[in-house]
Design brief:
Layout (H helix, E strand, L loop, with lengths): L1 E4 L9 H5 L4 E2 L7 E2 L8 H10 L5 E4 L6
Antiparallel strand pairs: 1-4, 2-3
Length: 67
Amino acid sequence: MRLEVDLDLCQGHAVCQDEAPDLFDVPKNGQVRILRADPAADLDAARAAVRYCPTRALSLVDDSPTD
């Protein structure tokens, strides 16, 4: 799994930072910065950040190999 952000959609609401402060940083009047693209240690928090993003700018991508 990895986190991705669509910066065209991000409006800097910082909900992601509230949900997962170890994974996201949103500077004042700025857009989200992903601090760690691999959310394995904080997967529940990453899922909450994706779920509650008001503009749907965040996504979790399953990049595991398929058989």
